[in-house]
């Protein structure tokens, strides 16, 4: 064996030689600093999220599926199934493709998909009995360990289908909840997701075979009470149900405790008179990318579903200088679990309290009309349908002119933008400026130089038409609201009376 191939010699030689130089800060320049500080919060979040990936070759090898509900959800190799009774086959395929994207976001490898047209899903096995047997053969042929249904299955349907295919069966709701549990970061977000998971799990608890009674009930141990006095006690499933109800009560109380702080922040923004704009839309439509383009927020951007769960608020301004807040919200999806809608109602309140809603739609999506309808249904549920809406078709650089004409038919007043290239964002800012509530009180002010705080406040919150400097201070012509008028009332310059016109 040569010296270079000997491991001991390699270790000793590496120990003797100095370490490879690692330069972070270059001498005399700020290149090193720029390299270090160029990472945004979104870049670090993305690196952290991609640092943990499931092993594809790992298999659960489920033979006994009686303990499915008590296992941690671990998607690996999945086969998708769907039943549709109305609509076209293309609509059903689009829904199944969306489910495949959800599974891949959760960490699964989608192997195949099965669609069946039925008047209504089978009450026992969801699929027809013959198709369920075909699904069993397909699962074993592909080596899949998970079957995912493109709807929310009843507990009896899951159990019956698992008895046929002999692998784990979950539904669309379980996949979405798993994605939310992976992406939640804040305390409130984690509590909301856990509450939704508990609500979903409670009616789907299953017994553990012979593991029945956990305590003896009644009078036990020869107390002389006679036959029939020794009750079975509390079973394992009853214990689990009681613990889940207790945990849900604690989570509801915890989420309720977050409310005052959130209301205080929202009241502070309202008190300052700064209008708010909320970015809403379908998941993976590009909402966070638009926020980064407009405000340089540096939030997480990822080509996956439900990359953003927590609301992000940033300050922006219109071309004329009017300030407003821009809020990035959680994305929507068709068949959004009602548990999540209820749990994330606090986050959706940011949309309901906004002055303007920027509705972002993925222009390259196969079914953008369904995106529009789905988002508007959720907006109606949170009481935001009466708020001015600006429809924006994002990713316009990925579509052709024919697709653009079709999208124009869906929303004639919509804007076509591209967060990737920056195309159309100036038109979006102009449209936002038109839709924002404007201060309506015109004033002429002369503010002393020592009151720079008022001048800064007017530039940030009011609409400054003109400004000039004289010996006594700064002369401003502004449009303000009632609150701002009270603050600057002492510096108002009376308007000169207009001369009467000669008859």
Report on the architecture of this protein.
There is one protein chain. Helices cover 41% and strands 16% of the residues. The chain is α/β, with parallel strands linked by helices. Among the domains are: 68-179, GTPase HflX, N-terminal domain (Rossmann fold); 274-435, P-loop containing nucleotide triphosphate hydrolases (Rossmann fold, 3-Layer(aba) Sandwich); 441-491. The strands form three sheets. The protein has a six-stranded mixed beta sheet with strand order 6-7-5-8-9-10, sandwiched between helices. The protein has a four-stranded parallel beta sheet with strand order 2-1-3-4, with helices on both faces. Strand 1, helix 4 and strand 2 (109-117) form a beta-alpha-beta unit.
Known CATH architecture of one domain: 3-Layer(aba) Sandwich
Q: How many E strands? A: 13
Largest sheet: 6 strands, mixed
Task: State the name of the first-level CATH class of one domain.
Answer: Alpha Beta
Q: Which outline best applies?
A: elongated
Question: Which strand order does the major sheet show?
Answer: 6-7-5-8-9-10
The CATH homologous superfamily name of one domain equals P-loop containing nucleotide triphosphate hydrolases
Question: What is the rounded Rg?
Answer: 30 Å
Class from secondary-structure proportions: alpha/beta
Query: How much helicity do the residues have?
Result: 40-55%
**β-sheet strand percentage:** 15-25%
What's the N-to-C terminus distance? 117 Å
Q: Which parts are unreliable, with pLDDT below 50 for 5 consecutive residues or more?
A: 14-37, 54-73, 214-226, 496-503
Mean pLDDT: 76
